[in-house]
Amino acid sequence: MASTSTIKLLSNRSSIFFPNNPTFSNPKRILPRFFHLPTQSTSIPLHLLSQLDRFCSLFKSKRYAAAKSLLTHLATSDHPLSTSLASAFEASCRAASISYPTALDMLFRVYADAGLTHPALETFEILLQRFGRVEDRSCTVYLQALRRSGRINDAHQFLIRMLDSDAVDVSAYSMAIVVDGLCKNGVLETARKLVDDMFLRGLAPNVMSYNPMIEIYAKKGDFSLMYQVLKVMDERGVEANVATYTILVDAFGEIGDANKAEKVFEEMSTKGFLGDIYLYTSLINANCRAGNIKRAFALFDQCFEKGLEPNDHTYGALINGLCKHGQVLAAEIMMHEMQSKGIDINQIVFNTMIDGYCRKAMIDKALTLKAIMEKKGIQLDVYTYNTLACGLCKSNNIKEAKSLLHVMVQQGIVPNTVTCTTLIDILCKEGDMVEAKRLFREMVNNGADPTVVTYNVMIDGYVKKGSITEAERLQREMEKKGMLVDVYTYTSLIHGHCVGGKLDVAVKYFAEMKQRNVQANVVTYTALISGLSKKGKSDEAFKLYDEMLKAGINPDDSVYSSLVSSFHNTKEMRGSTPSLEADGGRSSGHPLSSQVRVPIANRTSQKAFPICPQSVRNSLLPFSFLVALSTEGSSTSSLYVCSMAYLPTRSFRLLEFPSRGSSFTSQLCALVD
């Protein structure tokens, strides 16, 4: 056993290192298995003495790698070792005339490399006690071992001990290891305090200590604090490196600000730094996210010009950008090029392509990729299954989607919120609101909080079942939870009230959207225009149509059909129908009207105007007119529907349709049944 004085000394030193850790406060619990300080002699197996002699021989002949390998075997082997091996180790070193402190330092690193942090700490304490000096590189290895084992707080305490001791020349790299670990653990304030403390001690941290803080602040979206760190770097004369610029490009790319990412790249180039493939990949990704696909490919070409070999992440960024912007066939070409260069397609790229195919309703190709993934032994994750299930739902393959999700569960993959939302959507489409509600409540009870999308799916399901009261109850529940009601929520409720005949409530919801700055989409306008048209509110319907165009939203055929049918339902149409010839073919207000004469011709709408949408031709009322106007030499024209109905403000209405490609001269044809 070790002497009382030695135990006391080690206990005091260990407490200084780890004051709050009971494991380290008792050195008896952390002594190495074969590195003890014995007070009595014990027999040592001959084969161990032989191995120690072999170690000394290798060490003396400067075959350090082989010596370290043998020492690692001795330190980590499972056979029992004598407590007197420490004295034998020292005796062997003395007999071979090799430096015992240097050999002991190697043992310290061996323990640290092997993850044996307890005996490593004991060895460090003995080095400090016996020789008063420890190599920084060995301490760095120990810090790395502590970090690998997730004990970053212990690493922090050890670094402070190193800083407080004159026995270790602490390097900037040792500092960076701890700072990076603290940042990754989310204790940024502690990391910043440590860096400031080191600077005040005169131990200037290098860029590797600042980069982790910049990266974490950037990922959190806290650009104010990120810029603060950059300012401190500049004030302290710490120059950014390529890794710093890559972090900044990544940060701006994540928020879709490709312009700022490009400025960072330009600044880096001006300072003479040569970007590596990681920086180029980040910049390509930033441009892809912003929709600058052409610029992304220009950067991709620069990689080859500069001798940089694109990797799977580079191709993945381009493929993701192409898929997100609907260019899935171009993404397919990039995937084949990736394969031709011997770069394996990873799970992320496969998932990206599957998502791209599903977005374009190319579900068969998506399923083919799924089969290839399985054949290659690539694990399908919850994202793969969710994407395919959503794609199948959108293509109305409800049964296949449900079956796929069941397979996912059977494979042991835990469903997430997206999975549950997709399954709820399937149940709603099947009209099974009872089961959908059960699953929805089960999510809440199990802590898998439904998202806005989940609520919208349920609201839409209730609306389609005619249960508008339940839909509105869920809307109130959303708002109570602090969720923001979006355009899809409002559109479902507006549609439900329009179908239910409560047009006034639908209009109130539409007004509420505007008050909350929720931008209506084409479905919102279509639902409300349809509701107004059915009620014969032609003026209001046309006002919404004009508003829709001003908002830059392109109407679809449903809007045109609704507007045309509004003439049927307008109460004013019950009056007399005057002759247009008597009016000279002029309306009371539209600037185009005076340019048009009204020849009466007995032609069918389909024959006279093939550019008119079929749905509109089918809904044209008797004695309506189609007017095609174009400029000579132009390849486009505008198509108008004119009603003969007598209205207080004008003789007929004008409704514009986009041309389908033919060139027309000014003409007006009467359409009769």
Automatic annotation (TrEMBL):
GO terms for biological process: mitochondrion organization; RNA processing. It comes from the Eukaryota. One of its GO terms (cellular component) is mitochondrion. Residues 571-593 are annotated as: Disordered. GO terms for molecular function: mRNA binding. SUPFAM superfamilies: HCP-like (SSF81901). Keywords: Repeat. PROSITE patterns: PPR. PPR repeats lie at residues 171-205, 206-240, 241-275, 276-310, 311-345, 346-380, 381-415, 416-450, 451-485, 486-520, 521-555. The keyword rRNA processing does not apply. InterPro entries: Mito_RNA_Proc_CCM1, PPR_rpt, TPR-like_helical_dom_sf. NCBIfam families: PPR. This is Pentatricopeptide repeat-containing protein.
